[in-house]
Amino acid sequence: DDDSSAGVADNQREDPRGWWFSDTEKSSFNAMDETKSCAGLEESLQAVAKAFSELGPFNGILGFSQGAALVALICALKQRRDPRFQFDFAILVAGFKSRAAEHAEFYQQPITVPTLHVYGDTDRVIPGEMSQELASHFVNPVLLTHAGGHYIPVCSAQKKVYFSFMDSFCT
Questions:
Q1: Which terminus has fewer CB within 10 Å in the chain: N or C?
Q2: From the CB of residue 170, how many other CB atoms can be counted at a distance below 10 Å?
Q3: Where are the transmembrane segments (predicted)?
């Protein structure tokens, strides 16, 4: 028996999700890979659209690492008035600009969706420069840096920034 699944029914397990794959032969992803094409983006957009439809509405969305890169693409689709994605703001933690050539179209226009970009100064998975590059594609992004690595910071000082950012969308 595997103790790591104790208390979790088989039908409640979730498989880990890669939003898209830069190496389609190995079904793997590396944020540094520059590729002409990738696999899985449309399926991922459908999964997020299904969540919006079945579980929404949502005031905002949050993505971490490759999920933050996906959220950036969703923000671009929202700006293009894609009816599947209705939200007011996004929080992108350890995000990066996709290096897939077929995703370049998403970054051609400045993205006006309000965003908070969070990244660590010592992140070795997604270096801060990559998160800064992504933020440069947004109009008036709010930036929050922390001294740590590849994680979502939740210390008191960071919480204040999160709350301040989200409070601006409360009516």
A1: C
A2: 7
A3: 58-77
